[in-house]
Amino acid sequence: MFVINARNANDALGQGIQLIRTSAEPIESRVGMTLEVPMPVATVYHKPWERVLLSKVRDANPFFHLMEAMWIIAGRDDVKFLTEFNKRMAEYSDDGKIFNAPYGCRIRNHFPSVYKGETTLDQLKTVVGILRNDPNSRQAIVQIWDPKDLAPEVNTKDKACNMSMVFRIRNGELCITVYNRSNDMVWGAYGTNVVQFSMIQEYVAAQLGLPLGTYTQVSNSYHIYTDGPGGAVWDRLLEDYDADENIYDSVVHNQVYMMDYDMPSMDHDLALFFNTYDQFGIKELGEMQCWKSQYFNQLIIPVLCVYLVHKQHGPTEALKHTHNIHSDDWRLACEDWLMNREEARK
Which of 47, 87, 317, 338 lies 20 to 30 Å (CA to CA) from residue 137? Predict the structure, then answer.
């Protein structure tokens, strides 16, 4: 097994590029040619809260990454919300309405519950309860992979790549290990996954009143695609990516964390956010001013509002509103992404 010890997402991507360059082998997959490392890869993030890629070369979509993470934590399975930020997500749905293996639904309301009055099991709630009762427990496990997906009769575009999460408290910090069967390094591991699972880690840690420890991602098949859009991004990274593990020290002075705020207010706003979306649509969310938590007031809603301005008026106008985003990392990533859109229009 290869082990990448990384400070943050930016550092991990740089090390991952070098690992693929020096160790990967060509492997044909069902969706195109890949370069795959010949054994599993474990990426250990020592500062998982530094989850935002600050790279104009990579050009990751921070609006989609942040909103998808909230969608997962809310336990959703609908296609519509994600396509507000990334229309290509509809390609992974069998019916255009829901996904077969959405992480949030699998985590929070998919598997049968053993508790009276509950039909499905909220695994995050269960994990919090386990660790409150026994901080040394090694049984705080969240399952994502459903064995029924192995059945030949299940013909679906969407089978979970990330299979399970294991939480544990060590040295007064909440650590997480995520097990993954198939990990595209560019789009998955150091794109969506680092945001998704570090935010789940932060959500559970905030419920427990603990700081974050390490986040380890174990990737059984660690690869990049050399064809199509993935290949184009890979070529660009090979040519121009300049990893800077200390970039947060120089450009990020303020960050917004869940654990800094009242979690009941956060949960209230999370439910209100998606209930409002379901009833009235995305534009209504940008006009609401009734949020109880500073997490929504300082990060989620400002990011959403910038994106809505971009959709309606374009990136130049949207850039005039990014100062409302209180978290420097997300603000800088949003600005870089918008500037790339503006440059592409010229």
Answer: 47
Same domain, 194 and 259: no
Annotated active-site residue 161? The verdict is yes
Pairing of strands 222-225, 32-36: antiparallel
Work out whether the CA dihedral 197, 97, 187, 311 comes out positive or negative.
negative
167: left (phi over 0), alpha (psi -120 to 50) or beta: beta
pTM of structure: 0.96
The set of residues, in sequence order, having a beta carbon less than 8 Å from that of 173 and lying 6+ positions away, is 205, 210, 211, 212, 213, 214
Please, which residues have CB within 8 angstroms of residue 228's CB and are 6 or more apart in sequence? 32
pLDDT of residue 344: 83
Q: Assess whether 195 and 291 both reside in one domain.
A: no
Q: Which amino acid is at 338?
A: L
Let me know whether 269 and 228 are in one domain: no
Among residues of the chain, what percentage have pLDDT more than 70? 99
Question: Which domain does 306 fall in, by range?
Answer: 252-346
58: which residues sit within 8 A by CB, 6+ positions away?
Answer: 13, 186, 233, 237, 241
Length of the chain: 346
Domain end point (choices 245, 269, 298)? 245
Query: Is residue 167 within 8 Å of residue 132, measured between CB atoms?
Result: no
Residues 186 and 266 in one domain: no
**What CATH number should be reported for the domain holding residue 129?**
3.30.572.10
Q: Is the same domain home to 265 and 237?
A: no
Can you list the positions of beta strands (E) in the chain? 2-6, 25-29, 32-36, 41-45, 140-143, 162-170, 173-180, 183-184, 212-219, 222-225
As given in the structure block, the two tokens for residue 310 are 């971009």
Q: Which of 105, 161, 175, 305 is catalytic?
A: 161
Confidence of residue 130 (pLDDT cuts 50, 70, 90): very high
Distance separating alpha carbons of residues 214 and 196, to the nearest angstrom:
15
Judgement on whether residues 235 and 271 belong to the same structural domain of the protein = no
The dihedrals phi and psi of 27, each to the nearest 5 degrees, come to -135, 130
